[in-house]
Write a structure and sequence with these properties.
four-stranded antiparallel beta sheet, 3 domains, disordered N terminus, Immunoglobulin-like, P1 Nuclease, about 450 residues, alpha+beta
């Protein structure tokens, strides 16, 4: 029997450094779980023969993926993403595990940034900012071995160097339907869910304003007593306030026609676009200005824009006052002292933003997961099995018969042009209990796609 050929076998065991994202084992795992619960994944798993859906136990034997097994042992079992000694846990836990492992090794965390205005990803803080960092922070930065530049997040999800890229997801997902034995299909499905969770993690990171406003310096705040406990205060507050189980449910399911559109689109409807123009990060607040001589604060970016008239009288109070968006969400605090107007972000303001941002991130992640699983074939049984599908491009359909032991064997291979809704027919096998079809190709707009469907004969 062939091993699963899991892409996760090449994982390094290096832990994430200062560029780490929303906390992987809490916020990211929680976002992935909430998205999975709202998505079509449960029904799709049942269609593929995993009767428990999201709660079906899937197994990756430790001997098949020793590096993955070692990496998972670095996670706390209390976070719900660590399989038992057999490598067995639920489908929902595997997708959370993928969301927890996307920053491994540490350098990969630098590929979870994207500024939609410049099209650039992560870059180390420039010299003027680096010189202002403490020796402690500069030392931790050196130990983290972070690259000077990262791959922009929308490109990273398809990059060949990414062990959890789109190609790996599609390959494992197709094998989860087409592999011969139940054990093989279980391993491939778990691997596909790990890749899906990691892709969702990469998208979800763009819900943090500093990651979409070219504010790498915001990720070097000292957060604890440890010399290397550095990161984004905004993202740490999310972990402390919501943990894993408290992450808000998706506000809705967001749909987009192309994978990249979930990240950024020409219409400005990607997650990076929305967050970049809606929120400040700590180092992209309006510059300090003198009230007596300057009419408006200087902005590093056009949006979000302060109101045309700031409440200078309220800003002269010791506690200052608050800038809010039209929905009432805190954008920043501002205060006048010695004729100088200064803006800031405090913990309470960040918490207010998180209460709005996290449900939106979950909504984008739900839509992305549904996008990955969007391909669906319909099989109708009679004297022959008729296979139909919508919104497909060109590709190949593999038709398989499953016997009472759960073993699947190939019945036929059909070339699909995407021109007809009826994709093909095959004779109904007399000894089968289920027929499964797997399409591998592109959708109607040219995006890579795996579409699946099945029909029970008993």
């Amino acid at each position: 029997m062939k091993r699963a050929g899991l892409m996760v076998g090449i994982l390094s065991l290096t832990l994430a450094g200062p560029a780490a994202a929303w906390e992987p084992s809490t916020t990211h795992a929680g976002l992935a779980e909430q998205a999975a619960l709202k998505s079509r994944l449960h029904k799709r798993l049942i269609t593929l023969g995993f009767g428990g859906g999201l709660f079906e136990a899937l197994t990756i034997p430790p001997a098949d993926a020793p590096a993955l097994t070692s990496a998972l042992k670095l996670l706390s079992p209390t976070h719900g993403s660590v399989p038992d000694s057999r490598g067995r846990q639920s489908a929902l836990a595997w997708i959370a595990a993928g969301a927890s492992l996307a920053d491994v090794p540490a350098a990969h965390g630098a590929n979870h940034f994207f500024d939609p205005r410049s099209g650039k990803g992560w870059s180390l803080p420039d010299r003027s900012i680096a010189n202002g960092l403490s020796d402690k922070v500069r030392g931790a930065l050196g130990r983290a071995s972070l690259p000077s530049r990262g791959v922009p997040a929308p490109q990273w999800v398809t990059d060949k160097k990414n062990p959890f890229n789109l190609d790996n997801f599609l390959s494992q997902y197709a094998k989860a339907a087409a592999a011969s034995t139940p054990g093989e299909r279980s391993r491939h499905m778990a691997a596909a869910l790990i890749a899906a969770g990691a892709i969702m993690h990469t998208l979800g990171d763009l819900g943090s304003p500093s990651r979409v406003r070219n504010d790498s310096a915001a990720h070097f705040d000292p957060l604890g007593a440890g010399p290397d406990d550095l990161g984004s205060r905004f993202e740490r507050i999310a972990a402390l306030a919501y943990g894993r189980l408290g992450v808000p449910v998706p506000s809705r399911t967001i749909t987009r026609p192309r994978l990249v559109d979930y990240f950024s689109s020409k219409e400005g409807a990607g997650l990076a676009d929305v967050i970049e123009r809606s929120y400040f990060s700590v180092n992209t607040l309006p510059d300090a200005s003198r009230v007596s001589t300057e009419s408006k604060p200087t902005l590093s970016r056009p949006l979000p824009a302060p109101p045309s008239k700031l409440n200078v009288m309220a800003a002269n109070r010791d506690e200052g006052t608050t800038m809010r968006n039209p929905a009432g969400t805190c954008l920043a605090r501002y205060r006048v002292q010695d004729d100088v107007l200064r803006f800031s972000l405090d913990d309470e303001c960040m918490l207010d933003q998180l209460s709005v941002i996290l449900p939106e991130v979950a909504a984008y992640e739900t839509g992305l997961l549904d996008f990955l699983l969007r391909g669906e074939l319909t099989l109708q049984a009679g004297n022959a099995i008729t296979i139909t599908g919508k919104d497909l491009g060109t590709g190949t359909i593999e038709v398989l018969a499953e016997d009472e032991r759960g073993v699947r064997t190939k019945l036929a291979s059909i070339e699909a042009s995407g021109k007809n809704q009826v994709l093909g027919t095959v004779s109904t096998p007399s000894a089968a209990v289920r027929v499964v079809a797997v399409f591998r190709g592109t959708d109607a707009v040219g995006e890579p796609l795996v579409a699946v469907g099945s029909v029970s004969l008993r």
